[in-house]
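Morning F.,

Quick status update on the modeling queue. The single chain you submitted on Monday has been processed. Sequence for confirmation:
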Amino acid sequence: AIVRGAGGQDGADLVALTYEGYGPAGVAVLVETTTDNRNRTVAEVRHAFSKSGGNLGTDGSVAYLFDKRGQIVFAPTDEEDALVEVAIEAGAEDVDVVVDGSIEVTTLPEDFIQVKDALTDQGFEAVAAEVAMIPQTLTALDEEQAEKVGRMLDMLEDLDDVTNLYTNAEFPDTNAED
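Structure tokens below.
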């Protein structure tokens, strides 16, 4: 106890934990944490959920709504066909061209590095690349719900132990022209 109190065991027992729950408007939320104090972390996460009108769930209560996938995003390019061809040959699961012209390559987690390296070797530089939990379906929010969910997500992101945060919330497009 004296060694721990003096800070002699910094990072000695870091544990990765995932919390699941529902936020305002019924949006599913996965919170990945790394902590040395499970009790503190669960209390902080539970507080963020309850203060925002959500509730912390049990293991598996929302995880089934997400798929673990690799995502590699590229800026719009004139060499779209070549990028798509390299991605498919390297084992990509899907390639989508988004409305703004950017290209999203989706992979299985085990193929992520192989596909990313193949694209990099061909001169395609990714804007973003990560293995993430992708929601199978999205929950559309109105302005009021989006504000509440946004506050809860901000509270969770501000917690020191939170490493990743995933949600199936679909926020309204505030830049849409009528």
